[in-house]
Amino acid sequence: MKTENQKAWFFVLPVLLLVAFNALIPMMTVVNYSVQETFGDNVFFWQGLDWFQQILRSDRFHAALGRQFMFTFLILIIEVPLGIAIALSMPRSGFWVPVCLVTMALPMLIPWNVVGAMWNIFTLPDIGLLGYFLNHTLGINYDMTQDPIAAWVTIITMDVWHWTSLVVLLSYAGLVSIPDAYYQAAKIDGASNWAVFRFIQLPKMKTVLTIAILLRFMDSFNIYTEPFVLTGGGPGNSTTLLSIDLVKIALGQFDLGPAAAMSLIYFAITLLVSWLFYTVMTKDDQN
Amino acid sequence: MQKRTIVPIVYILFLMLPIYWLVAMSFKTTNEILSGFSLFPQTFTLENYATIFTDPSWYWGYINSIIYVSINTVISVAVALPAAYAFSRYRFLGDKQLFFWLLTNRMAPAAVFALPFFQLYSAVGLFDTHLAVAMAHCLFNIPLAVWILEGFMGGIPKELDETAYVDGYSFPRFFATIFIPSIKAGVGVAAFFCFMFSWVELLLAKTLTAVAAKPIAATMTKTASSAGYELGLLAAAGTLTIIPGAIVIYFVRNYIAKGFAMGRV
User: Fold this and answer.
1) Of A157-166, B54-63, B80-89, B243-252, where does mean pLDDT reach its minimum?
2) pTM (2 decimals)?
3) Contact yes or no for B83/A11 (Cβ under 8 A)
4) Minimal CB count within 10 Å: which of A131, B157, B176, B218?
């Protein structure tokens, strides 16, 4: 049982100050932009909620949001089961464990723009390893700069390549923590592999899986650098995810007001979905 | 047993292919890369690496990155430790709301918040310093560190704290000499995640720096656009960005696997 202690606030204070400095002040600025119009020279006019209305009604925003949800949904349903499956089949002890862990963690440690550039070159039709193989060896017509479907397959594959290991590492850590006694008991009861997974392994992985799924949701929903470097949002607008569109408006057209309004709506959506995930996944712990 | 090991092997091969391609390209001349497909470098060259190690604007990129990533890791873990302790041991006014609010800070779209960040850090006179990037990265690293450490601390029985007080330990002494050593795996995991996310983040790092603290990833984008598209050089620089990370994982690999094991039983 936790004890009630208001002095615990002092322990939290440094974290609070540092995070608030970084979170609240920029947030205030964005809120400020979102209700004003400017023609430069730091002269601002009160605009009210016009930008919010304009964004919420625009087809462009709806299309980008739809692509964003599609992207996040696809990578979650691919990466989470795949990550768990790989973690289950990894060795539990011996020489191969560190080899697996180190090689699997490698993609996560590559700066995001390098990941984008690397996949761009890797998939070029005539000089990239994957692009050359698909086009010249298998005879599949694959060019992600021309074909929207190829572009989607490429950004999804890139994200699976980049982030499945996060799910693997966390699931594996959860699996390693299960004492042998549980497996022995299951064996005596004659439990099937599926039963062992469903009633022993999955519940024990729950805490770490919560971290993995929430992190993957938040990060994929805010993904910017990698798809931007890889496809630039193209061909056409087919891979223009929400944050790419946001930057196009904010820095490309320099419409700070609409961009700020859009990012607040975006933030609210992320917050709402994360809160739903968080509440559902930690529900049992509260009881 | 044999059949099972195929899955990790196939997965690792899949992970290694793009990395192999990057490394192979770093030993090619840009002309060879552009002239057509070749699985291995035909004219093996170390010129790309030589450029990076002799040109200060390149190698300082790495040094800058390492400096701010280290500062960030130290700050994040240091302030997250007491906070995580408070969350795992005590109930206090607004604790659950605060914990969730911390998590929400990973969700702000960095793309648009970059400009306010620039204004904020310019206003306090920290623009283009390592500290600015290190502090800005705290926004998403501290919540994660608190979250991870809280999980580890939750697994340490409260009796440990109580026994220490009965034995006459003061709180700071108990915390430093008994508590932290017993969750050192958790500290390792938290530090690894802070290192990783700070090392790979580019948007804020690029926005908050100009010359003096410019990260390697920003150096790469700039050189790629000004000096044509020098693929060989870019590949070599990219290859070198993997190395510090690989060293860090090598040292924390046991913590990652065994680390989470504690307290989850």
Assistant:
1) B243-252
2) 0.86
3) yes
4) B157
CB contact under 8 A, A271 and B104: yes
Contact B188, B255 (CB under 8 A): yes
Residue found under tokens 């990973």: B106
Instruction: For residue A42, tell me if it sits in a domain.
Output: no
Chain mean pLDDT for chain A = 84
A57-to-A7, A50, A54, B3 alpha-carbon distances in Å: 48, 11, 5, 54
Residues of chain B with Cβ-Cβ distance to A271 below 8 Å are 104, 107
pLDDT value, residue A121 = 85
* Interface probe with A: pick from B72, B95, B98, B107, most Cβ of A within 10 Å: B107
A247/B112 CB distance under 8 A: yes
ipTM confidence score: 0.85
Q: Which domain holds residue A128?
A: 57-284
Given a contact cutoff of 8 angstroms between Cβ atoms, the answer to whether B135 and A22 are in contact is yes
- Report the candidate in B205, B184, B185, B241 with the shortest Cα–Cα distance to residue A108: B241
Q: Would you say residue A137 has pLDDT above 70?
A: yes
Chain B positions in Cβ-Cβ contact with residue A138 (cut-off 8 Å) = none
How far CA A80 is from CA of A84, A125, B196, in Å, comes to 6, 30, 20
Q: Do A107 and B260 touch (CB under 8 A)?
A: no
Q: Locate the DSSP E strands across chain A.
A: 3-4, 36-38, 44-46
**What is the dihedral sign for C-alpha B137, B138, B143, B147?**
positive
Residue type, B67: I
Query: Chain A partners of B31 at a C-beta cutoff of 8 Å?
Result: none
Tell me whether residue A231 is in a domain. yes
Domains of chain B: 1-44 (no CATH), 54-263 (1.10.3720.10)
Residue A67, pLDDT score: 92
Residue A38 counted as domain residue: no
Judge whether A118 lies within some domain. Answer: yes
